[in-house]
Design brief:
By secondary structure, this protein is mainly α. It has helices at about 10, 20-35, 45-65, 70-80, 95-110, 115-140, 145-175.
Length: about 180
């Protein structure tokens, strides 16, 4: 199999599915890393060394993509011919967008109040929502409802970004 032509799932000998066995992904990654590591081509010609670097880079990109549920969802959409990065908020539910605005206001208030317990509670709540949205994405994708899955992916982007902002706020407050 040519690494350049394989999709990331084929590269790791995994089924094209949202659900992954992390242990299988990890084992396949380590195997490919040892097989294509540039150190094995250190005494080779320039072309071979460059090829080893490119192959290692692809293996690393594939691993990072499949390990992250958000990146894996985007990649699955790409495989299905859907541009996950095309932004069109018309596909997003108005209620969801209003909820996101309210959550951001709540986050700002918690940061202003330096309320670590409140941030932690908010994070727990959003993580539960994330789990639910991930399951919904998987259901839609598996059923071939790619347009709906893209909308759900866009919701996931909001949720992941909010969780990242909470983490940064907690770090900032803990550094004081």
């Amino acid at each position: 199999m040519s690494l350049q032509k394989a999709n990331y799932f084929e590269l790791f000998s995994l089924p094209v599915s949202f659900q992954l066995e992390n242990a299988q992904l990890e084992a396949a990654y380590k195997k490919l890393q040892s097989e294509f590591h540039p150190d094995k081509a250190v005494n080779a010609d320039d072309r071979t060394r460059l090829q080893a670097l490119q192959q290692t880079s692809m293996v690393n990109d594939a691993y990072v993509t499949l390990k992250s549920p958000l990146k894996r969802a985007a990649y699955l959409l790409k495989i299905a011919g859907i541009d996950a990065e095309e932004h069109n908020q018309l596909h997003l539910d108005e209620g969801f967008l209003l909820q996101q605005m309210e959550m951001r206001e709540t986050l700002e208030s918690l940061i202003d109040d330096e309320d670590l317990e409140g941030l932690d509670a908010m994070k727990d709540s959003i993580n539960k929502e994330k789990t639910s949205i991930l399951a919904h994405f998987e259901t839609q994708f598996t059923a071939g409802e790619f347009v709906g899955a893209k909308s759900t992916y866009n919701q996931l982007q909001f949720v992941y970004k909010l969780l990242d902002e909470i983490d940064k706020a907690e770090e900032k407050l803990l550094d004081y």
